[in-house]
Amino acid sequence: MDLLALDPNGNAVIIELKRGKMTDPIDMQALRYASYISKWEFSDFENQAKFYLGNGEEFNFNEHFENFCMQSGVDEIPDINSNQRIIIAGSEVKDKLGSVALWLYEHSIDIKVIEIDSFKEGDTLLIQPRTIIPLAVNKFSEVGKAAKGDVSKPWLSSGKSWHLEKRMKTKTKEMFLQLDNLIRDSLTVQGPSFDQKNYVSYQSGNYNWLFVRTQANILILQFSIKVNSMDKGQIAKQLGIEVFDADDTLSEKLNLPSSVNIKNRNETSDRILLRIKDDFDLTKPAFLSFLKDTIKNSSKS
């Protein structure tokens, strides 16, 4: 593997850099690396970062990653390695590799292929990158059988399958389906709506009451409520969970069980962030009572 990185969403990024023309064995090599990296845990990335960036006692992987996310404009520090991305870069893409990479992309594998041209201007070396895959109209779509339809955004054409099969692992999917049944059986709301890439939404009246951010091992429930109308400590006690502290280190956040936090949005509204993992009991009456309280205290009510 040439380079391994993390993006601001916590995804592992496998980067393959190739001199000369890029041929088809590269895609299989990148997929093998992605498969291997998908099994990594937090400590694996921490050890790799220490090896690459420095082994001194002052080096703090948590701090480096959190600062990187904040500088990138990420409001909430994400879980690490919830998904993997592949970037292949070289001077020229052969048709066979381009066709395979395009097929992977159209089947929801996060892959990007970049052609790089280099120029010399005096003693200065200039680099010009061009993203070949994905493109709205791709020259490789006619290699082999022509691509049918636009599947570059699968959450628009088959949103339910996208969230349940692509973004959630089995236990998380079971949690979501249980949550969905509870909401539809017990509350007068509309939804779910699956047409967004990162979250599922429910409406109460003419406003969005609940956003469920879907991830591999966790569901993050977001409610907009009137400012100071609910207390995170009381919610934690009511539901038997922890209070999520935004100032905790990344490792502490990852190891925290189901938890809750409230963030102020503006002068009139707060946002509840309820992080539920497989330790959370969705059947307890206190949880249904909490859901009803969020509707009653909604910032739009």
What does this 3D model show about the protein?
The chain is an alpha/beta fold and 301 residues long. The protein has two domains: 3-150, no CATH class; 157-296, Yope Regulator, Chain: A (2-Layer Sandwich). 35% of the residues lie in helices and 28% in strands. It is built from ten helices and 14 strands. The longest helix has 17 residues, at 170-186. The relative contact order is 0.10. Mean pLDDT is 83; it is low at 140-150.
Concise overview:
This protein is α/β, with parallel strands linked by helices and 301 residues long. The chain has helices spanning 25-37, 42-53, 61-71, 95-106, 154-157, 159-167, 170-186, 232-239, 250-255, 285-296, and strands at 3-6, 12-17, 21-22, 84-90, 92-93, 111-121, 124-133, 190-193, 199-204, 207-214, 219-226, 242-243, 259-264, 269-276.
Low-confidence stretches: 140-150
Strand share of the residues? 25-35%
Estimated structural class: alpha/beta
The spatial strand order of the largest sheet comes to: 8-9-10-11-14-13-12
Shape: globular
- Count of β-strands: 14
Largest sheet: 7 strands, mixed
Share of helical residues: 25-40%
Distance between the first and last residues' Cα: 53 Å
Count of runs of 4 or more consecutive helical residues: 10
Number of domains: 2
Taking Cα atoms only, what radius of gyration do you get, to the nearest Å? 22 Å
Mean of all residue-level pLDDT scores: 83
What are the secondary-structure elements, in order, as H or E?
A: EEEHHHEEHEEHHHEEEEHEHEEH
Structural descriptors:
2 domains; Yope Regulator, Chain: A; 14 strands; 7-stranded mixed beta sheet; single chain; globular; alpha/beta
